[in-house]
Automatic annotation (TrEMBL):
<dbReference type="InterPro" id="IPR001375">
    <property type="entry name" value="Peptidase_S9_cat"/>
</dbReference>
<keyword id="KW-0378">Hydrolase</keyword>
<dbReference type="InterPro" id="IPR023302">
    <property type="entry name" value="Pept_S9A_N"/>
</dbReference>
<protein>
    <submittedName>
        <fullName>Prolyl oligopeptidase family serine peptidase</fullName>
    </submittedName>
</protein>
<dbReference type="InterPro" id="IPR029058">
    <property type="entry name" value="AB_hydrolase_fold"/>
</dbReference>
<dbReference type="Pfam" id="PF02897">
    <property type="entry name" value="Peptidase_S9_N"/>
</dbReference>
<dbReference type="Pfam" id="PF00326">
    <property type="entry name" value="Peptidase_S9"/>
</dbReference>
<dbReference type="InterPro" id="IPR002470">
    <property type="entry name" value="Peptidase_S9A"/>
</dbReference>
<feature type="domain" description="Peptidase S9 prolyl oligopeptidase catalytic">
    <location>
        <begin position="493"/>
        <end position="696"/>
    </location>
</feature>
<dbReference type="InterPro" id="IPR051167">
    <property type="entry name" value="Prolyl_oligopep/macrocyclase"/>
</dbReference>
<keyword id="KW-0720">Serine protease</keyword>
<feature type="domain" description="Peptidase S9A N-terminal">
    <location>
        <begin position="7"/>
        <end position="229"/>
    </location>
</feature>
<keyword id="KW-0645">Protease</keyword>
Length: 704
């Protein structure tokens, strides 16, 4: 089947920057803004922006050498400051910062709207301070970046230094005068997913086009990259062949050869000093033993390569627990885990036969995260950062030291605390479970006023994602507070917020994710619908007062709510979405997600992909007079990950079908995030909240 047949009458909107397409976009933007951007919207936007720009936010830091580094945006520096300070200063209420790079000043001087995309610091010689970095700058907020070498002591880019042109680039310092570069080298150098297929070794002063190729992968794979581990005593080059999102191969260099760490491709591999760690996605049988999905397995690297290592299970999940991330201090392994979507932190002691202990947190329905401060600094090698956040609990940052004995409690000290951004004294957080179509219990969080009247009249906003093993956990609702919770209807009802922990996510590890892969994708949508029904049956809300929002894969979720469950929702915000699942592999980075959704070019795959392609579900026969929810579909012109064209086509098709109350909005920059600075973020969120609030409360100007 030719998937570009003329039956798609809106293919012209795929011409990203054509005059016809952009005229349509600007007309839709004007229509949406004319209806929404009034005094109520301005008040909502300003309330959100005040939270995003607040000077008393916690400036999160990363320690390198003696300094603590931070990237900061506020009203005076919308593009941001890359800066650093000392530990003594950081502990003060108002630290003194050394500004390394003022991105606003850089953008003004160079005439390019640079968006800061991160740095990579070069490890200095022992006893020296960090002095060189690779700075990544995006011209429009998308995934493509320019990489430039920066001299930190002199606060300037290095004249004649490394400078890589704008592209989807991965780069690693190999040594002070050499980089491993994975980028667009020209014809044949990219995969079908639009990422680098080859990696080259670029020597200072050399030409990127003639640099030596050191690693490559098949064009059908997602990407290739090579990194250099500069940990003293464990220096090595590591290469990765990312086959798809859940399958890869890892290699370490021995002499001139790449040595494959021979495990099944769906077993994740990471290295730390003398260890190799494995995370299987499916049951892994090795040397007569079975390691369950979601477990953390450890072995000695040299022994594993020699075929003599004993594999040890460090963490084994239960039906209610999952491993989210790990970190290392000098003498301990730090594990961030979930138990029914609430945080549990475990400390593993390798010196005591890998004994495991649980850190006493005492705060259910919150998120805690633990990470090392600097495992190589002898002054603090067993120190950790501990962050706390809850839906109604402003974030706090503590620092502590791992206890040396199991009977001791870790010593912690709160370093920074953010103030409340809205009055939450009359709100409460609860967790509930809905029963999906196949009998699975699906958790969700509800943030609502205390003594909520269960009469079906409360304005409720649901949020969901359900993909790529990503977990939605409690976090402070700073922007959503003024944007939704603190608002009230003419009857004095405040907003309620619901987070749906549906399958496809990682809340219960790989099994929860894989339950909604490809032909089982419908389970994620059934889960979300089950939660909506549960809210309605409990009297929390009703169809006309229920809104839902989701972005990216969550936008695909929203598209399936519009086309599959229109009877459950009064309004939907569908952001930076996948929607045309017949052509998604041809658009932007879509080919890289075949492992998640299936390949529509394969006839047997298209049979099930078709069932969750909202753009095509619009063609399905629905009862005459079906009342679709009011729908705001939005994207970003510079989104080079999903791209805006699927959103454009969905909105245009719905409008062509005379589906009432469909609006479209497209920011011209901001990439897949949809916004490149706090002001743009406030506009994006304000637009979404205003559209939803007005359509489920009847307040504001009519949008019919």
């Amino acid at each position: 089947m030719d998937r570009s047949t003329p039956e798609d009458k809106f293919l012209w909107l795929e011409e990203l920057a054509s005059g016809e397409a952009m005229t349509w976009v600007l007309e839709q933007n004007a229509r949406t803004e004319d209806e929404l951007f009034d005094e109520d919207f301005a008040a909502t936007r300003e309330g959100i922006l005040a939270v995003l720009d607040a000077a008393d936010r916690i400036p999160m830091v990363t320690k390198h050498g003696a300094h603590y580094y931070n990237f900061w945006r506020d009203s005076l520096h919308p593009k941001g400051l890359w800066r650093r300070t000392s530990w003594e200063s950081y502990q003060q209420p108002d630290p003194v910062w050394e500004v390394l790079l003022d991105v606003d000043a850089l953008a003004k001087s160079e005439g390019i709207d640079w968006v800061f995309s991160g740095t990579q610091l070069l490890r200095p010689e022992p006893g020296n301070e960090y002095s060189r970095a690779l700075v990544k700058l995006s011209p429009d907020g998308g995934d493509q970046v320019r990489v430039r070498e920066f001299d930190m002591p002199n606060l300037a880019f290095v004249q004649g230094g490394f400078d890589l042109p704008v592209a989807k680039t991965n780069v690693s310092w190999a040594d002070p005068d050499t980089l491993f570069v994975a980028t667009d080298f020209g014809a044949g150098s990219l995969t079908l997913s639009s990422y680098a297929r080859t990696v080259r070794r670029l020597v200072r002063g050399g030409d990127l086009s003639t640099a030596e190729e050191v690693f490559s992968v098949d064009p059908s794979h997602v990407l290739a990259y090579v990194s250099h581990d500069s940990t003293p005593g464990f220096e090595r080059d590591v290469a990765h062949d990312v086959i798809d999102f859940y399958n890869s191969k890892t290699f370490v260099r021995r002499g001139n050869d790449w040595v494959h760490l021979a495990v099944p491709t769906d077993v994740g591999v990471s290295l730390h000093r003398s260890w190799v760690l494995f995370s299987p996605q499916t049951p892994w049988i090795h040397a007569g033993g079975t390691h369950v999905p979601g477990s953390l397995v450890l072995a000695d690297l040299a022994g594993f390569l020699a075929g003599t290592a004993t594999l040890r299970d460090i963490f084994v999940p239960t039906d209610s627990t999952s491993l989210q991330s790990i970190g290392f201090t000098a003498n301990h392994i730090l594990l961030n885990t979930l138990k029914d979507v609430s945080s549990e932190i475990l400390i593993c002691d390798p010196d005591r036969d890998f004994a495991m202990r649980t850190m006493d947190l005492g705060s259910p329905l919150h998120s805690f995260s633990i990470s090392p401060v600097d495992d190589e600094d002898p002054q603090c090698s067993d120190d950790f950062w501990l962050t706390l956040s809850g839906f109604l609990t402003p974030s706090a940052l503590a620092r502590g030291t791992v206890a040396t004995t199991e009977s001791e409690n870790a010593s912690t000290k709160t370093i920074k605390s953010a103030p409340a951004r809205f009055d939450s004294s009359d709100f409460e957080v609860s967790q509930h479970f809905a029963v999906s179509d196949d009998g699975t219990r699906v958790p969700y969080f509800q943030v609502s006023p205390r003594d909520l009247p269960l009469d079906g009249k409360n304005p409720v906003l649901m949020n969901g994602y359900g993909g790529f093993q990503a977990s939605l956990t409690p976090s402070y609702l700073g922007a959503l507070g003024p944007g939704w919770l603190a608002r009230s209807t003419s009857e004095g009802r405040h907003g309620t917020y619901v987070v749906a922990n549906i399958r496809g996510g990682g809340e219960y590890g790989p099994r929860w994710h894989r339950a909604a892969l490809q032909e089982n994708r419908h389970r994620a949508y059934e889960d979300f619908a089950a939660i909506a029904r549960d809210l309605i049956s409990r009297g929390v809300t009703s169809r006309e007062h229920l809104a839902a929002t989701g972005r990216s894969n969550g936008g695909l979720l929203m598209g399936n709510m519009i086309t599959g469950y229109p009877e459950l929702f009064g309004a939907i915000s569908c952001g930076v979405p996948l929607l045309d699942m017949r052509r998604y592999t041809r658009l932007a980075a879509g080919h890289s997600w075949i492992a998640e959704y299936g390949d529509p070019d394969v006839p047997q795959d298209w049979e099930f992909v078709r069932t969750f392609s909202p753009y095509h579900r619009l063609d399905d026969a629905l009862p005459e007079g079906t009342d679709y929810p009011a729908s705001l579909i939005w994207s970003s012109t510079s989104d080079d990950r999903v791209g805006p064209v699927q959103a454009r086509k969905m909105a245009a098709k719905m409008m062509d079908m005379d589906v009432g109350n469909v609006r479209y909005h497209e920011s011209l920059d901001g990439g897949h995030a949809g916004a490149s600075d706090n002001g743009a973020t406030a506009t994006m969120l304000g637009t979404s909240y205003e559209f939803l609030w007005r359509n489920i409360t009847g307040q504001g100007r009519g949008l019919g």
